[in-house]
Amino acid sequence: MRISADFTVVPDDFAKAAAPEYRVDGIPVVSFPFYIDEIKPGARYLHWEFVDPDSIPVCGFEWIHWSVANLPIDALMYDFNDSHALAIPPDFSRQLPAMIPEAVQGRNSSASKFLGRASDPAVTMRYNGPQPPDKDHEYYLQVWATEKPLPGLNQGFWLNELLHALRGCGEAPDSDGIFLTGRA
Fold it and tell me: Member of which family (predicted)?
């Protein structure tokens, strides 16, 4: 599998400098587009995490920005410029529940009881755009493909539940990841 994007720095519309109409409660909520290519034959479902390891010195933990599980590959559109690449379009996070209800999104770090900031699922169980407070951060998007859906994951799952389900799925998931930068 190969993951790619048309940028290495997360564009303003999907991050700290997002316009007010791309925010909920001050949080950027419009997810960025990316591509998935060269998926192993037999893979039928996608799962991913988008995290910020550079947040550890700032808040004491790796910030979870977005997680998705059990997305049927057949429900996605192929990129017309590359007949092999699956395109995850901009704003997919907000559109996903209506478009593909069997896919689920996990809680992000805004749902943390230690922050007490947000309770709106549009903020806590969808994409949360990068907003590094101290310096540019490096973010990691990891995508896995499996033959079967992962059991036991419901809307609002926690990232550790996704990782446990991947380890216990009885197959070696196909995976790849990319690093992206978010500007302070």
Answer: Belongs to the UPF0098 family.
